[in-house]
Design brief:
Radius of gyration: 25 Å
Helix content: 25-40%
Largest sheet: 5 strands, parallel
Number of helices: 19
Structural class: alpha/beta
Number of strands: 19
């Protein structure tokens, strides 16, 4: 049974009374309905709320309680755990792999993507800054790999060790408690009778069956279906865990929050809150979109990374049985001068061996040498970019319904296993192409020759921590994204849009051609900044409007982000590796620089469920915004904000939506939350952010 604390009941009722007295206006009838609903909800909450779902098909082996349940162990999850522990909370965190850190660790993208000025100012969340400092302390330098894509490239399993230490120290410092559940997935949500609260969550934790190899022996595709099944199998033993709110001294359950930081938005799919996946429809808010209706099958490519070491002598190279299938795909970027093995190898080199007077390459870093280790994350290499209903990775809601995954106990992760397998195979084939290939699908010049003096790093003690050498989980660039609650100016639900952050030139001819006259006018009225009201009132022609030169400023900002709007588009035809396949036309229309931007609290609040907060790549924004809001520091910022919001809401006895229901007027409680974030060194705005500051020219991306 789920109980609502006396603190929450008192806060809800007292807040209703205060507002009723203060805001008694001609809208009395509407307000009366609101307050009646609030009082009714409080009354319902006083009684025990029966679990609406049917009984489990398998007995629960253990029950764990917490104040904050974080689902997923990626960067955003780690940031949430860090802040939750510093706040003294009891935090449960689940993760399908056995590493925390996501991009930094289990996904192997251990090369920090950062904007230049943000980096020069060290203007990052406190935990992210601490992580960077510890990387530098560990290696004696920030860029252990002497890579040229970033100022910091490092070994993933080193990052894992650092993050574990940081969480341990945060728990000690804040007197919090971390309950860590590796190799664990959420199978089911049990909702309260009113359907607005998650009462408990059912999870399955797996371990190797007796006399079987260690976990991380097989790639994810071979165990994912087994991991979501209740029953023991020849490969995995299972334990069913029920997560519930933390009990108080009277043995009564208190309030709690669930944070969905999964890489693909699993909990928002399970809760069936409104969300979107894939390409958004073209509109004046997302004018660069190539489609008029939502395309749920075309998401950005996902990547299984791997690490390879250069050796003094040639190594035996075994051709994978599936190599010829993917050979037509492999190549170098057709729009650049990157058709060079040294360039590809040093791009994301994560370890640079010591050498006297090393020779420099064209990018100013040391040329490759024996002992160097490179992490591969390459568009026409190990990126896998499906884009049709036959091979999309993240199932749409309709596909989930047809497959039975939205039925009770039917959830199996919401991913297509066959596409995961293809992503794994194309990555292993790419390694073989790098060391033995002689073709290039994207270049007319035949530059490619074998480079056999390399070996794929495998083993549980390897950089990726797997026997097969691939990352434990693929790097996911785009997830399911919630549609936030209706709010002022967003009657159909809140979402951040392209024009909120993009520096793209919207006066370009493509927008005149693809947008209707009305939509084009609305686009420029929305871009007018302080002059928008005048432009709307006077119906000012677009050619007479000067666009604002900053991002949208949100009154409910709780974090920051800036990165290039960078796309790895899906491909046009099935299968991905089909010879001559091309990127889906128009997906890169929005590719370009972005202004330093903010993360509004509204983007973390889903519809329908009041104690669910979303984080990571699952927040309310368009696929174009997601192209820039998917990198390391953004994930940390939004994760820190999610946990701080949960902690604040628990302390105040409120739900997060109550902090933004009066916007654009900023309530005193919302200001308190923002002040708390800033005091904790988690910025909510970049320096000099102001509606009157229109000069962002010095905020360069690179």
């Amino acid at each position: 049974m789920v109980r609502v604390s006396n603190n929450l009941k008192f806060k809800l009722m007292s807040k209703s009374i205060k507002r009723f007295t203060k805001r008694f206006t001609k809208k009395f009838i509407f307000k009366l309905w609101i307050y009646t609903y609030a009082i009714a909800f409080s009354t319902i909450a006083i009684a025990d709320i029966a679990i609406a779902q049917n009984s489990l098909t398998k007995t629960v082996d253990r029950t764990e309680d917490c104040e904050i349940l974080i689902v997923g162990g990626g960067i955003a999850s780690t940031a949430s755990a860090y802040e939750g522990l510093l706040a003294g909370r009891t935090v449960c965190m689940t993760e399908i792999t056995d590493w925390i850190g996501g991009q930094l660790t289990s996904q192997g993208t251990s090369a920090l993507d950062e904007a230049k000025k943000q980096r020069n100012l060290w203007y990052f969340p406190q935990g992210y800054t601490e992580f960077r400092k510890r990387i530098e302390q560990k290696y004696g330098k920030l860029n252990a790999g002497d890579c040229w894509v970033s100022v910091s490239c490092f070994i993933p399993n080193t990052a894992q060790q650092i993050l574990v230490e940081m969480l341990q120290e945060a728990a000690q410092k804040g007197n919090g408690k971390l309950k860590w559940f590796p190799n664990t997935v959420i199978k089911k949500l049990e909702m309260g009778a009113n359907g607005k609260l998650i009462g408990s969550a059912i999870a399955i934790q797996h371990s190797p069956a007796p006399n079987t190899p260690a976990l991380n022996t097989e790639p994810l595709s071979q165990i994912i279906e087994d991991a979501y099944g209740y029953e023991n199998s020849p490969r995995l033993q299972k334990q069913v865990i029920r997560f519930v709110p933390l009990k108080n001294t009277q043995n009564q359950q208190r309030d709690w929050f669930v944070i969905d930081s999964t890489e693909t938005g699993e909990i928002i799919a399970l809760a069936d809150v409104p969300y979107r996946v894939g390409i958004d429809p073209r509109s004046h808010l997302n004018p660069s979109s190539p489609v008029t209706t939502n395309d749920p099958y075309c998401t950005q490519g996902f990547t299984y990374t791997f690490a390879m070491e250069q050796t003094p002598e040639a190594q035996p190279q075994n051709k994978p049985s599936f190599y010829d299938r993917y050979l037509p795909y492999y190549g170098s970027d057709p729009k650049s001068n990157l058709a060079n093995f040294d360039t590809i190898f040093t791009y994301r080199r994560i370890w640079s061996a010591e050498a006297e007077n090393p020779k420099k390459n064209a990018f100013g870093v040391s040329a490759m040498k024996a002992g160097d280790i490179s992490m591969q994350n390459w568009v026409w290499g190990n990126d896998y970019r499906p884009g049709t209903a036959q091979d999309n990775l993240i199932y749409s809601r309709e596909q989930l319904q047809r497959s039975g995954q939205l039925e009770i106990d039917g959830w199996m992760g919401g991913l297509r296993k066959e596409t995961l397998k293809s992503g794994e195979e194309i990555a292993l084939g790419f390694y073989y192409w790098l060391v033995a290939g002689t073709t290039d699908s994207q270049q007319k010049t035949n530059w490619k020759k074998p480079f056999p003096n390399h070996r794929l790093l495998t083993g549980l003690d390897s950089p990726m921590g797997t026997m097969h050498g691939l990352s434990k989980y693929p790097y996911i660039r785009e997830s399911r994204r919630i549609i936030g609650r209706p709010s002022y100016g967003y009657p159909e639900g809140f979402s951040m849009s392209e024009i909120d952050v993009s520096q793209v030139d919207f006066s370009a001819e493509i927008y005149r051609q693809t947008l209707s006259e009305k939509t084009y006018r609305n686009l420029w009225k929305a871009l007018a900044g302080l002059e928008s009201t005048s432009a709307i009132k006077n119906d000012t022609p677009p050619n007479q409007i000067s666009r604002r030169t900053r991002s949208t400023i949100y009154p409910d900002a709780i974090g920051i982000a800036q990165y290039y709007l960078d796309f790895h588009p899906c491909l046009s035809e099935y299968p991905v590796e089909k010879a001559g396949n091309t990127e889906r036309a128009g997906v890169r229309n929005g590719h370009g620089a972005a202004f330093p931007g903010q993360i509004p609290l509204r983007s973390l609040i889903p519809q329908k469920v009041d104690n669910l907060i979303v984080s990571g790549k699952n927040i309310a924004y368009s696929y174009i915004v997601a192209a820039g809001y998917r990198v390391h520091s953004y994930e940390w910022s939004v994760g820190a904000a999610a946990a701080t919001t949960a902690d604040f809401a628990l302390s105040e006895g409120i739900f997060p939506y109550q902090l933004v229901e009066d916007l654009p007027r900023v309530s005193s409680q919302l200001r308190q939350l923002q002040q708390k974030l800033v005091q904790n060194k988690n910025a909510i705005a970049f320096p000099d952010t102001s509606i009157f500051n229109l000069n962002w020219s010095d905020w360069k991306i690179w």
